[in-house]
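Show me a record, fold above all:
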Amino acid sequence: MFLFLGALWLHIGMLALARKTYTGNSMRMLRSSAAYLIVLMSHLLIALEFAAGFKWSHSLGLGGFVHVPGEDWMDLFYFSLVNITTLGLGDIYPTGHLRALAGIESLTGFLLISCTAQFIFETLHKPLRLRIDGAPL
């Protein structure tokens, strides 16, 4: 529950920052690139948050992972990225109660990717407003 809420609040905040960064017509390509990088960073931070959740849950004895060479941070981050994008390759999979956490992460990822898709749609379809003399506002 805390991971979901933390991910949601982080993503909403990062989307607000991305919208603020995108606003304005000067240097539109640079602004849109910066905004999209902010959104990408949001997804990466959320995957890192869930990886930390998997590590902590594993330390509590709530489950583990199958086919993981070392269960180090990179393995957990990789699993989290694959899971939050709902890709689900299956080369690493959780056991025990970590399966429920993985399901919550997948649902969270689906929700956040939908929010990101809406943001990208809005920014790509936002018309360029011009002054009467034809210069950008």
Remarks:
- The first strand starts at residue 65 and ends at 66.
